[in-house]
Amino acid sequence: MINVDNVNKIFTQRDGNTFQALDNVDFSIKKGEFVSLLGPSGCGKSTVLNLIAGFDKSYEGHIKVNGAEVKEPGPDRVVVFQEHGLFPWLTVLENVAFGLKQKGIGKKERLELAREQIRTVHLSKFADRYPHELSGGMKQRAAIARALVMDPQILLMDEPFAALDEQTRLVLHQELEDIWLKTGKTILFITHNIREAVMLSDRVLVMSTRPGTIKKEFNVQAARPRDSADSLLHHVEKAIMECLADELEKVVKEEMGDDTYSLKKNSVFDRTFGGMGGGI
Amino acid sequence: MFLIVLLVAWEAAYRIIGWESWKFPSLFQTIESFYTGFAHGQLLEAIMNSLRRLLIAFAISISVGMLLGFMFAKWKAIDDTIGFVVIALQTVPSIAWLPFAIIWFGFNDKSVIFITALGATWTMAIATRTGIKNISPIYIRAAQTLGTGNGWKMFMQILIPGSFPHLITGVRVAWAFAWRALVAGELIANGAGLGQLLQDGRGLGDTALMLNVVIIIAVLGTISDHFCFKKLEDKLLIRYGLDK
To answer: Does A249 map to a domain?
Structure first.
């Protein structure tokens, strides 16, 4: 369904220096699969999504969706953004109907379809509100409805729940799983939250940073709908945590600079793990 | 209330200081002149003439300004070249172009409309450019992913509504600029209008008439700004969730 073949992406910075954001990223997603792309901030996971979405065309390698090279953004793979991206000048209903309007569907029909979709994300009461009148979770639901109403084969979700509080996020996890089980969409889900990735996905691709590349792949073969107490989930979570540990170190190093790092390292570990820091 | 105090103070000052009426009129002279001005249709005609010119010029400057602003936002090459010139031109008070306008069009309506439009166009162009440039890229991306493409649909459904908060501010400022340029233009170039009436008042030593015109200009300006544009702007800001 989605094939990413040996993709390299190089950014040129303002000062003329270049840095390699993606290095030989290579993976594929089957139809109906729920795959998470997991990694620390700055590892290029959102870049991967932007390339698949078609927002950015300057890369090496091939990205194919349904066997056809990606050329431009399109409603066959709708993106759900972290910052919801609802148009503030339209009501929830108009926002959800927006994509249908572009397809040339008549007003009556598209409003009907939009209402129906809004019902499935439990926002019927708020259909005539403007986005700024909604809470963060409701906005994100509206954004998901706006994507689903297009009936795309693929949903690209770019850290959609990252800005939400924990409770709202848990509710939305269940709703998303529910939607996925019902519709059988192919979903590529970007996140930096290990728990979230494990809870939702069939497969978790862990990315390493600088340059961004797929480090390891984990299959999550737990029963659906997922139960957060499932020990298999905890097992996978732990394995991913270990896999990411040295990535974390790299990020800290990158962000704090080399000099301060040796100092910080001890203090950070001391505080976090208490007695486990032995020998300090 | 404040207005009444002001009016009383004005009349009192007139009597105590003893201005002569060819320097500054009294309250009653002004009211009387106001009445006769309207009774004879002279004031009303001038207002209508001025507003007509203003609206023509305003329509021109809004459409040309938006077109320019959109081009600046869309094509960097145009922004770097013509855009730079426009910013330079914006600093020139449009009345400075009046001598040219008189050479090109003569002492008539066209000259006045020309400089009135000129005053507002640059402001509008720059406001449009800023408005479009400030649209969050996420809206553009969201629209693309929903299938707008990058052409007309994007322009009408995202770029225009997305830049509306800036556009409406641009329109407000453009209106104020146009209003100023109009009166200045009418003072010098010919044609019945408020500016011309001011000039006539000076010629006749009729200070009451002159003051009336000034007051009318202030009132019209306030009404249009406060009751049309400000209301519209507030409404938009609330709707866009930009109001605190």
So the answer is: no
Let me know if residue B146 belongs to a domain. yes
For residue A100, the enclosing domain spans: 91-151
Within its chain, how far is the Cα of B95 from the centroid? 13
Q: Which residues of A touch B161 (CB under 8 A)?
A: 87, 89-90
Residue B116 covered by a domain: yes
Report if residue B208 sits inside a domain.
Answer: yes
Contact A72 B144 (CB under 8 A): yes
The answer to whether residue A247 is domain-embedded is no
Tokens of B231: 């209301």
From the CA of A65, how many Å to the nearest CA of chain B? 14
Whether residue A159 is found in the same domain as residue A217: yes
Which two tokens mark A65? 């969706």
- Token reading at B105: 């069009």
Partner A contacted by B146 (CB < 8 A): yes
- Asked if B205 contacts B36 with a C-beta cutoff of 8 angstroms, the reply is no
Tell me phi and psi for residue B157, to 5 degrees: -100, -20
Among A75, A131, A132, beta carbon nearest to B145: A75
Query: Which residue of chain B has the CA closest to A91?
Result: B239
Taking only the tens of pLDDT, chain B with its 244 residues reads 888 888 888 888 877 777 776 777 777 777 887 788 777 777 888 888 888 888 898 899 999 998 888 888 888 888 888 888 888 888 888 888 888 888 888 887 888 888 888 888 888 888 888 888 888 888 988 888 888 877 788 888 888 888 888 888 888 888 888 888 888 888 887 667 888 888 888 888 788 888 888 888 888 888 888 888 888 888 877 777 765 4
Domain membership flag for residue B2: no
SS3 state of residue A279: coil
Query: What is the CATH classification number for the domain harbouring B166?
Result: 1.10.3720.10
Which residues in chain B are closer than 8 Å to A146, comparing Cβ atoms? 146
